[in-house]
Amino acid sequence: MSRRREIIDIYELKVLHAVVTERSITRAADKLNQSQSQVSVALRRLRTIAGDPILVRGKRKMVPTEYGLQLYEAADFALREIQFIAHLQHEFDPGHSRRIYRVGCPDCISTTFVPRLVALFRDAAPHATLECSSAGLTFDYESALQRGELDVVIGSWTSKSAQLRRVPLFEDDTVCVVSDDHPFARSSPVSLDGYVSARHLVSMSEDSHHRHLVEQVLQRAGKARNVVATIHADLAPYVLVSSDLVLTTSRFSAARYVQFQRLAIVRAPARFGRVSYFQWWHERSASSKEVRWLRDLIAKVSHSLFEASVHA
Example GO molecular function term (predicted)? Predict the structure, then answer.
C-alpha cells in the first residue's frame, strides 16, 4: 500500500525559499516577519516530508544540501507562478506595484537605452524594482524567459521557438569610430576596400551583434580585416584617440564614445547595413498585465530614441 503524500502549503514554500536564500533561520524569520519558532516548526515539517535536512551547518554558516537546492529551485518557480496568479485577480496599477521586473539587454545599446528606461520606470512604478542584466550574442535568452528569470529580452536574435513572441523596437546603424585626425574622419561613408586596408580594433564584449554582421559581410565578399587588438569595450575610446585604428560598433555605442574623447563617427561601408532589435517575451507571460506594461514602457523608450536619432 502506497504512503499518502504530505501536502506542502504556500507558507512552507515561503519558509523553504527564505531559509535557503538567507542561510539562516533568524534572518529568514525576519524576512518573513515571523517568529523563529514558527519558522523552525515549518522547517522541521519540511525536513520530515522531504526526508532531507535541507539546510546543514557549514564552517561559518548554514549551507543547503544538494536536495535542498533542488527543492529551492522548485519552490522559487512555484512562488513566481503563485504571484502571477495573485496579480491576475486585480486591476494592475504600476504606481502600487511592488514586483521585481527583469529585463535582458545587450551591452551595445544598454548605455543609451537603460538610463531612459530606468527614469521612466522610477516615475511610473516608485515601489517596484527593475533589474537589467547583460544579454550578449551567446546568452541563452530562451531558457531565461521560459524559466521566468527574465520578463523581457531586448535583442537582435532570431528564434524558431513557437513559445516566444516578439515585436520590433528599432534599427541601429553600424558605424566606424576613429580619432578625429584619422583619414576616415574626412571620408564618409568608408568604402569596403578602404575598410579592409585599415587596421582595426575589436571590442570583445560590447559589439557582438555588429561584429557578427561585419564578419558575415566580409566572408561573403571573400575579404578579411586586419585586427590589431581585441579589448574590453570601455577601453576602446582611450585606445582610438591616440592611434590609427578603426572600431566598428553600433551608433548607440559610438555616441557615448565621442562624448569623452576627440573621436569621429563615420558611416561604415553600405554593405554592413543595420541591425534590427526586438523585444522578446515568453508565451507564459503573454497575458500578464505587469509584463505587458513593461513592454509598453520599453516601446516608449525605443520610440523616444528613434525620434532623437532622426533629429540628431
Answer: DNA binding
> CB neighbours of 178 closer than 8 A, spacing ≥ 6?
184, 185, 240, 244, 245, 246, 247, 263, 264, 266
Residue 114, Cα to own-chain centre: how many angstroms? 10
Supply 151's cell numbers. 520578463
Rounded distance between C-alpha atoms, residue 144 and residue 152, angstroms = 9
Q: What confidence category does residue 107 fall into, taking pLDDT thresholds of 50, 70 and 90?
A: confident
The answer to pTM > 0.85 is no
pLDDT band with cut points at 50, 70 and 90 for residue 208:
low
Spatial separation of the C-alpha atoms in residues 268 and 256, rounded to whole Å: 17
pLDDT > 90? residue 174:
no
With residue 264 as reference, give the H or E element that holds it. strand 263-267
Mean pLDDT estimate for the chain: 86
Domain covering 10-88 in this structure, CATH number: 1.10.10.10
Contact 177, 240 (CB under 8 A): yes
Domain parsing of the chain, residue ranges: 10-88, 94-170+276-310, 172-274
Superfamily of domain 94-170+276-310: Periplasmic binding protein-like II (3.40.190.10)
Three cell numbers, residue 63: 549551507
| Cβ neighbours around 136 below 10 Å, total | 15
| Residue 17 Cα distances to 74, 75, 100, 168, 259, angstroms | 9, 6, 16, 37, 45
- Mean pLDDT value across residues 149-168: 87
Task: Tell me which of 3.40.980.10, 1.25.40.10, 1.10.3720.10, 3.40.190.10 is the CATH number of domain 172-274.
Answer: 3.40.190.10
Sign of CA dihedral 151, 152, 157, 163: positive
Question: In angstroms, rounded to a whole number, what is the distance separating the alpha carbons of residues 168 and 277?
Answer: 6
